[in-house]
Write a structure and sequence with these properties.
CATH class of the largest domain: Mainly Alpha
Number of strands: 0
CATH superfamily of the largest domain: MFS general substrate transporter like domains
Helix content: over 70%
Strand content: under 5%
Number of domains: 3
Radius of gyration: 27 Å
Shape: elongated
CATH topology of the largest domain: Growth Hormone, Chain: A
CATH architecture of the largest domain: Up-down Bundle
Order of helices and strands: HHHHHHHHHHHHHHHH
Number of helices: 16
Distance between the termini: 32 Å
Largest sheet: none
Amino acid sequence: MRGAALVALAAALGNMLQGWDNATIAGSLLYIKRDFGLHGQPALQGLLVATSLIGATLITTFSGPLSDRVGRRPMLVASSLLYTLAGLLMLWSPTVGVLLLARLVDGFAVGLAVTLVPVYISETAPPEVRGLLSTLPQLTGSTGMFLSYCMVFAMTLAPSPNWRVMMGVLVLPSLVYVAVTVFFLPESPRWLVSKGRMKEARVVLRMLRGREDVDGEMALLAEGLGAGGETAIEEYIVGPAPEDDGGDQHALHGHVAAGQLARQHRRAVADGQHARPPAGPRSRAPRRPSRHEARRRRQRQHAFHQLWQHAQRPRRHGLGRGERRAQR
């Protein structure tokens, strides 16, 4: 729980930088007009503000499919790097053209952040606090806007305010965001499951949840995504036995998973094959399952059979961990 909250807060830094940027351009535009002599060019002034939104709109058209292909974390890393590059360009900006380019790059960073941070948080947060953590992007965005307005106001009190410094300060929080995305944020477990990378997803879930037993959530993710194509369900519910555990933990997981699948199998049979029509003159024959439902039922039956056989295998390495603890 605590790990998921910290990860969500760290990811939401991208939205804080969006709010920071929106407030900075509003406060520095007065000095940009004076420095570049744009008083008689309202269209160019508006373009300086709108270029960021144009960039964000352009990149959001393909950020979703691209993140499905390469992952959520690489896209967040790209967003943090684009924020840093935009801040450096705005800090330099010798001409209006360079400033427009900086604003466009900044818009790319904003577009990636506002589209992917909520998705990333929803895929890493536990169900019981998912709604709460999903409010963090809006909270951090408003916080960034407030802090930026305070900074701009303080800078305007100087004898000669420098708009390049106002906008270039974005580099500092952007570097923090780069460090967070590169060294702290894990990949989304849901995305890992969708790509069949079950072992990595299990490791990430254990880190996020702060516990070892995440097989139930792994099963739900895999079931919801239809992960692995023809991969048997036991491959993502039952993990390989660690070498130092002697296989007894593998057998324990086999018993647990077999019990879970047995309940699912009985429920599927009760809902499908053995369903009886209601009594009365308006009784109708039970609905014939579709080809997809029949295939899913066969997969469940096969998985249950395989897991049941696995759970009944004799353990070769002595007592299990629970039995050793009971003997003490």
